[in-house]
Amino acid sequence: METEGRVPEPALPAGGEGPGADSHLAAGALGTARGPLLAAAEVLALDDEEDDLEVFSKDTSLTEVNSFSPSVPISPSSMINQYKFEDGPELRDLFITVDDPESHITAIETFITYRVVTKTTRGEFDSSEYEVRRRYQDFLWLKSKLEEAHPTLIIPPLPEKFIMRGMVERFSDEFIETRRKALHKFLNRIADHPTLTFNEDFKIFLTAQAWELSSHKKQGPGLLSRMGQTVRAVASSVRGAVKNRPEMFTEMNNYMETFSQKINLLDKIAHRIYKEERDYCSEMKEYGPIHTLWSASEEAIGDSLKGLASCIERCCRATERRMAGLSEHLLPMLHEYVLYSDILMGVLKRRDQIQGELDSKVDALANKKTEKDLFSEEIGKLEDKVERANNALKADWDRWKQNMQWDMRSTFTNVAENNLRYYEECLATWESFLASQTVDLHVDEDSEDRP
């Protein structure tokens, strides 16, 4: 069995990409009360203790499959053609694709792995191309390591461990494809980030063989260390509001509270509208054929009934295309920013914890006449830590808002364009039907006027 790893290939030329280009936003339609939203469903978060145990299998006859499939030679065709570069001046030197999901079945669980292909021209990489397989829990590990290393940077969200009740079954093709796209976006947002892209754990995630990644995971902080960090965070939150929070971060908090409220509401309403539209479309699919069946017993108006059935069928197909665009692009984008709102609130809280730690030391120094030198040194270190946290968050905040606004504008512009196409198609369909009925009426009148 071959092992996954590096595949040497000549260096690739770099290209540029505009803000949010990795979002793959496409046309959707949310403009009307009946605007179809194809991925609408109630999203149920699974228990965190589940980790990556996606499904239990009681069939012990199933052979156990390794978590990581062997690598295969990568096609020499360049991945650069999969990206669009017309919108941005930045040069890219790291290209990542998540594809080829595979189902793995063992005696106790079923899970999915995804192929992660990386091409790069960076000198710190030993090769220009890598191919590895990763499962969902590996992506979770990467996210936690990025949060640990960069507590005041905005780490892109991962798709939740969810079931879309009444919409898709777990491990259906639709579920797997939705998750694959979200994982692809997650990695490419990290690759495009000016700081996260150079994180060592990110590099290991992209390049390490299965056993190397497993070994690296075991090198993390011990249980006592993690418990100490949690206790300090809780103690900081118990102290109450931060005394000396700069006005800029108060404004950020207020902005995110409003943003979170609006984006959550929009996400919920969008899914409700879709559910209604999906039910409406199902009814129309039954409604059309009834006219065809009726035409067999109504010779005089048979052609009209068949024409009406054809119009309903064509409008249903147009509705399904519009709904497909929404389920594939608009709804995932809305929910991504629901997750982003939670992430931003967490980042702001961590910044406040650092600020609170500094405030408590300053208060302690004011109340103590001894050990001033020791306290002064600690305060100096904390002041540097707060300054770094503030600068990192300010820069990332501006970048996040720019990308968010670009994503929103792009998506809603496509919504409008898709609505126009949909209504023009339906209008043309019904106008054609009316024209045919007008011609038939004139023919009937002429025949009746003849002696």
Description:
This protein has 451 residues and is of the alpha+beta class. It has eight helices and six strands, in the order E-E-E-E-E-H-E-H-H-H-H-H-H-H. It has helices spanning 136-149, 173-192, 200-207, 210-217, 223-238, 247-295, 302-367, 372-449, and strands at 5-6, 42-45, 94-105, 110-120, 129-135, 162-165. A four-stranded antiparallel sheet has the order 1-5-4-3. A two-stranded antiparallel ribbon has the order 2-6. Strand 3 and strand 4 form a beta hairpin. Helix 6 (247-295) packs antiparallel against helix 7 (302-367) and helix 7 (302-367) packs antiparallel against helix 8. The termini are far apart. Residues 6-18, 20-89, 164-168, 222-228 and 230-239 have low confidence and may be disordered.
Q: Which strand order does the major sheet show?
A: 1-5-4-3
Distance between termini?
90 Å
Helix % is 55-70%
Strand portion:
5-15%
The biggest beta sheet is recorded as: 4 strands, antiparallel
On the 0 to 100 scale, the average pLDDT is 77
Uncertain spans: 6-18, 20-89, 164-168, 222-228, 230-239
* Number of beta strands: 6
Structural class: alpha+beta
State the shape.
elongated
CA gyration radius, whole angstroms? 28 Å
Number of helical regions = 8
String of helices and strands:
EEEEEHEHHHHHHH
Could you name the key traits of this structure?
single chain; two-stranded antiparallel ribbon; 8 helices; 57% helix; 451 residues; 9% strand; four-stranded antiparallel β-sheet; alpha+beta
Task: Record the SSE blueprint.
Layout: E1 5-6, E2 42-45, E3 94-105, E4 110-120, E5 129-135, H1 136-149, E6 162-165, H2 173-192, H3 200-207, H4 210-217, H5 223-238, H6 247-295, H7 302-367, H8 372-449
Antiparallel strand pairs: 1-5, 2-6, 3-4, 4-5
Helix pairs in contact: 6-7, 7-8
